[in-house]
Structures
1.
Amino acid sequence: MLAAPGAGKGTQARRLAQHHGLEHVASGDLLRAEIVAGTAVGRAAESYVNRGDLVPDDVILEILGPRLKSAAEHGGYVLDGFPRNRAQAERAYQMATDVGGIELQAVIHLEVEREELRRRMLARADAESRSDDTRVTIEHRFEVFDAETAPLIGYYEGRGLLHAIDGSQDVDAVADVIVEALSGDGDEVE
Ligand code: AMP
C-alpha cells in the first residue's frame, strides 16, 4: 500500500488484510510500538519519526525482516508503509529472492489531492494526537514523500504491478474499489 501521508493507507491496508484473511504489517505501527516500549530500535527511530524523516533503512529492515518472513509462511500479508524509498524496495526484493516463497503481487497507490490530505491530517491530529501530526511536520512528510517515496510509483508501474486507486471517496467505497481492482490479478491474492 503506497500513499502520501493521510491518504488512508493504514485504514485500507487493514480492510484489505481482513478481507483476504492476511496479516497487516505496518512499518509505522511497528516503529511506534518500539518507541513506546523504549527498545534500542525504538530509541534509534524516535527522533526521525518525530521530525517526519525516514528512519534509516537498516533499522526498518531489522524490524520488518523477521515479520515478513513469518507472515509469508502464514499465507501472506498486506504491507503498509514499506518500502518508502528505492533502496528499501531493492533490499526487500533481494530479501524475497534470498528467502524464496515471498513474492510481491500487487502495489496499490491511493491517490488523494494534497489539500484534502492536509485537511484529513489536521483532523487526525486532533483525534489521535500523534507526535508527527503537527502542521510543520505534516508539510515535511509531504516533502519526504515527494522526494523519496513517489519515485516508487513509476518503479512499480514499470514492473506492471501498480493499481492507481482514487482514494478521495469514502472508506467503504475505496475498500470496494481496491478489492475489485485486485480481483483482476486472479487467484494470486485470494
Ligand atoms: P506511517 O505510520 O506510515 O505514516 O509512518 C510514520 C513514520 O514512521 C514516518 O514518517 C517515518 O518516520 C517512519 N516510517 C514508517 N515506515 C517507514 C519506512 N518504511 N522507512 C523509513 N521510515 C518509516
Note: Strands lie at 2-3, 23-26, 77-80, 107-111, 162-166.
2.
Amino acid sequence: MKIKVYPTSELQSKAAAQIIADQIRTKPDTAVCLATGDSPFGTYRELVRMVKDSHIDCSRLRVFGLDEWVGIPPDNTGSCHHYLHENFIGPLGIGHDQVHLFDGLSKDLSGECSRMTEAIRHAGGIDIMIVGIGMNGHIGFNEPGVDVNLWAHAIELDEITKTVGQKYFQSATPLSKGITQGFQQVFAARTLMLLAHGKKKASIIHQTAEAPIGIAIPSTLLRQHKNSLIMLDEEAAGELAPSLRN
Ligand code: F6R
C-alpha cells in the first residue's frame, strides 16, 4: 500500500483525476468501479474537466458502481445511482450500455449481486477501483466484521454508516441495508485508489495504516492489496507517522 500526501484536497483531486485520465488514455476500454460521496467528488469534477480539455475518448469506458443503499430509488438525490449520473456518467456522456449500477430496489438482492459479479467478470475484471473510507473504516459497504470471502453482496449497515449516511439525503431517511462489491472484488481490482481528505478522516487513516490488519477495521485489509494507493490531503494525513508519508 502506497500513501501519497498532497498539500490541499484540490491538489489531491487533480492528482487522482490525472491517474484515472492516463489510465483511460492508455486503455480506452478501462473498467472503472466508482465510489460516491464527498471523497471522490473533486476527483470526478477534475476528471470531467481533463476529459473535455484533452478530448479523451470515453466511448469504450466501462463503469461499475461500488455500492448502493438498499430500498432507495435511483432518482433519490441521496442514492449512489443519482450521484454517479450527476457527477460522472452524465458529464462524460457515458452510454447506458457502458454502465452497471446496483439496483437498490431489486426484490432479488442475491440475483442482483450475481448479475453484477458476472458483468465484471465478463468485462475482464476491474482495472481501477476508486473508494472512499467510512468513519468506521468501511470500504464500499464492507462494514466492520464483514466476510472477506464475498464478492458482491447485501449487508446490514453499521450504526455509524446509518447515521453518517444521513448527510447525503435531503430529509431523515431510514437506512438499514447496503449492497456492495465485496472484498474479493476489491482485492481483484488491478489498481485500488483510496481517497480521503479533511481532519475528520485523520484518525481512521492512521488506523488504516497502523492498526492490526483485520475485519474489525476493514480498510486495514487494503495493506494486503497488491497495488493500492492512498491519496490524502495534509489534514487527513495529520495523524500518520512521518515514516509512512511520501
Ligand atoms: C460510497 C461508499 C462509502 C464512502 C464512505 C466515505 O459509495 O462506498 O464507503 O466512500 O462512506 O464517504 P464520504 O466520502 O462521503 O466521506
Note: The CA atoms of residues 118 and 161 lie 27 Å apart.
